[in-house]
Fold each of these.
Amino acid sequence: MSDEQKLVRFGILGCANISIKLCKAISKAPNATLHALGSRSVEKAAAFAAEHSLPATVRVYGSYEAVVEDEEVDAVYIPLPTGLHVTWAVRVAERRKHVLLEKPAAMNTVELDRILEACEVYGVQFMDGTMWVHHPRTAKMKEALSDAQRFGQLKWIHTSLTYNPGPEFFKNSIRVKPDLDGLGALGDIGWYCIRAILWAVDYELPKSVLAFPGAILNEEGVIISCGSSMHWEDGRSATFHCSFLSYVTFDVTVLGTKGSLRLNDFALPFEESLGYGTFLESSELDYGKIEPGMWCPKSNKHVVETEFSQDVCMVKEFAGLVLKVKRCEMKPEKVWPILSRKTQIVLDAVKESIERGYKSVEIVS
């Protein structure tokens, strides 16, 4: 097998800021290469390629369609506004090219189902762009939560992801435009909060979702700040808050009957550029470390080393699946579309609860 056959050739639709990160990640992943970039004009695509020093071998196109039609493209990364996802993801799948789709995956579950059905029919791999789940730290945290002796039974989860981007954002960003990214903060950062909660409960959907009163919408009806609670039949519960109006937070707290897990950088590790990520864990087994006058044990800091940053890990994992499908070693891995769909179901329920005047929404699996 030639070296070229060991690489997934990526095309990228659009020159969004996140495309910069993915271009770098593709260049660092050992099983991927950037083959094509398309924008709404060839001048914009060429300027992007020059500004970010993309290799001269990268084909630059003046349309998204040209990337999709390029016979040498194996997989397409789609960072377009969410309102365009269903159109372009389906087109990509119909051309039998694998789909790496930026989050939120779709405007609603109906649209996402159209995307996933196309991927299923044409036999291509689907994955959404939730990077943090691919960091080695995430697997280590799951090991800690799965240790019944230390953690006990899971009882409660809270996640919070907020940032305040300033007045220009609210004037110009696609994230507050109803025809582009109509889910607003709920889609942009609430997606991360919901995914983290589902990850902690092994992706078991909650029985009910209840949005907190007081969600803030802009003049065009786009959510810019909201929160919600979730409840499971066995008594577990979770809450989250996402907002474009608050100081930056990336927090997760998971509480069990015997222990806890916390981190303040779940979506983007503080130290990842140095080759590691950390998290805090404590349990009843640590009570022997309690100092006089204290009632709460100090948390243990766990350091998880990583060869690649989480964006590179995502590209590497996705490309590995694509190569196996290309070689007929396996059919597309179905776990990734399942996780995306469950996240979308809960997101839809939060939005519905807000629209119904903060009434509880039952989720049917």
Amino acid sequence: MIDQFGRLDVLVNNAGLMLLGPIVGADVEEWERMLSINVQGLLYTTNAALPHLLKAAEDDPRQVADIVNISSIAGRVAWANYGVYNLTKFGVNGFTESLRQEVTKRRVRVGVLEPGGVATELGTHNSGAMREHIDAFVESTEILEAQDIADGIAFMVTRPRRASIAELWVMPTDQA
């Protein structure tokens, strides 16, 4: 990407996996998959992008760069049967805040976007009672569309250089 376009101005960490179920008797391989994608993927991608973002923040035309980490309202509120997913999203929020404090004075803005229910494949990775729970929520709620999240990201990264959006909730009106 850098070779093709010459610079990196924005990183959006959006990969995620949500495998729900009770902690007691859980399949720990599912935990490892969620930790690998939701936490380690974000860490490794951020680590690789940071030198390029710091350089872009020093240069014209923007003189600012952005990292937007996609978390979840599950990073703010814990629910039964969401334990490890909650863990990963609370971790994303904590990492985002720490990184924000480290690099914002160097003009790399770091923010977290925490969506509520969105029409994605995220819930389809579940089965049984958890899938029924997710399907019931989707049927009873006018959930967000991907464009709603894209609009939130665009809002965060297009503020003037002097303004940094550290946290943005985007919720379905029915869920708020």
